[in-house]
Write a structure and sequence with these properties.
It is a single chain. This protein is of the alpha/beta class and about 250 residues long. It has a single domain, classed as Rossmann fold. The chain contains ten helices and eight strands. Strand 1, helix 3 and strand 2 form a beta-alpha-beta unit. It is globular.
């Protein structure tokens, strides 16, 4: 798995959008026993923290030590520095395994074998994520130009799976049809710009050129943002399933 987020771990913790508790609660309705949950590639632990209110114990892993240093703490959360494809957990350990906005970075063939190993036979596996934000039309035009034209060449190839709403990734599970979700937040311009700066392609651009690409749109986006309603809507991505008898 690529580590694209250690360099901006602070911004990631500050500016990445949260998943609503209602979405996590919805995923949990499919779990038969709220014993142990695992959040893989947990980042700053936002999903782990929400799961901690529903499960007896929660484990969360990431390959970035800097990300884990910013992770939300709770008495029943245990964080581990390790990959999603090779974990230290026993067979049939978890009632629920989640991955938020990260599954596209994994080696699917190795990863899914590991999920089948550590997930209970009647457990639930859930992939979560979010698409590009929808704001006001003028701001959307600026963000689209930034996304496609300015930093477009700097996105990793795996980004296409997010653009395709995770519908083209392998999903070797008995899929549960999920209802659509959207998260709406009120953001000031600093929060919006901070979110754009947390993108991996933004960091790749800075590394290659020595220029912060957000500076190229900062003035224009700030102007149109103040003229809008300052609402940001994130279409959420969700796939849920149970394991087959064999992988």
């Amino acid at each position: 798995m690529k580590d694209n987020f250690s360099a901006q771990a602070t911004k990631y913790a500050q500016y990445r959008p949260q998943y609503p508790q209602a979405l996590i609660d919805y995923v949990c309705t499919f779990v038969r026993t709220p014993g142990k949950a695992l959040d893989l590639a947990t980042g700053n632990g936002q999903i782990a923290q929400k799961l901690s209110t529903r499960f007896e114990s929660v484990y969360a892993t990431d390959i970035s030590e800097k990300q884990l240093q910013h992770a939300v703490k709770a008495d029943n959360i245990t964080y581990k520095l390790e990959t999603a494809e090779q974990t230290s957990f026993d067979d049939n350990s978890f009632d629920l395994i989640t991955v938020g906005q990260a599954v596209h970075w994994f080696d699917f063939s190795i990863f899914y074998k590991e999920v089948y190993r550590i997930l209970k036979p009647e457990g639930v596996f859930a992939i979560l994520g979010y698409s590009l934000p929808i704001t006001n039309p003028r701001a959307d035009a600026v963000i689209s130009h930034f996304y496609h034209d300015i930093i477009g060449p700097y996105w990793d190839a795996e980004r296409r799976f997010v653009e395709q709403r995770y519908q083209t990734i392998p999903f070797p599970f008995k899929e549960i049809e999920a209802i659509p979700w959207q998260n709406e937040v009120d953001w000031n311009i600093s929060q919006l710009l901070g979110y754009l700066e947390s993108w991996s392609a933004t960091q790749h651009y800075k590394t290659k050129t020595g220029i912060n690409p957000v500076d190229l749109i900062r003035a224009e986006l700030s102007l149109v943002w103040e003229a809008g309603d300052k609402k940001v809507r994130f279409p959420l991505l969700l796939r849920i399933g149970r394991p087959y008898t064999k992988f």
